[in-house]
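Human: Not sure, check this?
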Amino acid sequence: MLQQAEQRAYQLAGRQAGYITRRQAIASGMSADAVMRRIRGNHWTRVKAGLYLIPGFDLTWRGQLLAATAALGAVVSHESAAELHRLPGVKREVKAVTVRTRTTNRFPNVIVHQSTDLSSGYIIEIEGLPATDVVRTITDLAATLGTRTIGRLVDHVVVNKLAPLDAFITIVGDLSRRGKPGMKTMHQVLELRSGEVFLGDSELELFVLRCFVRWGFPEPILQYSLPWRTPRRGRADFAFPELRLIIEVDGRKWHTTMDAFEEDRLRDNLAQLAGWRVIRITYRMLIDRPEEVRRMVAQALAA
């Protein structure tokens, strides 16, 4: 019985470059005492608590990644995922995985990243390995690679129809947060390719305020609480209450989802029913046609 259990454990270790966890060994039918005897007899090498290496196996790149993902509950990511996706211009033979917890994890000869935003929607299986999909992989690499390299990777994926550009715009919308590594690089790459500008709310408000000051306009109230009853609590980007004028500014493409589109129209209708006027401008208008925007806002203020 023990021989069969140990054989199953060895077969499993063989698929994991010789590595096996204590939990896997016991699940194969070995007892805790049998595992300890293998360690005391130097048949197995203790790598860390709960992780052992059985000598005699070929420690291949794929095998070590398989072992790391099995032992840590990790996902192949970064350069390793890029190699699985056959992306050009990324360093080869790097062994990197990502765990989805805040705890410290280590694995021999493998770089272990940590992420609290790695949802199952970003994970696929490639050659029997759990790995980040191509869009998430490039987004992760943006933390360490420059805009030129990331731009080439995005172009490669889009041109070869591995993923649409909108998929990158969506993931940046999902993952952008203050201090998120790589987001500035992704913004720069996507701005150039989509014609959209990825500014945070505070950055966008400051830019618009500078335009108003340069044009000699009065200063609006920022994030003005809507004074009428709405199905949801809401705020206007800019408001001139004495003129019953609201100005909404959109600087990000992912604001134009269907849900956001419907919500914006509902808000506009409610504003008009309450006797307010609404003007919608985009960041791209401010960049490409600033004089038209100036005249439009000036006319609204004069009215």
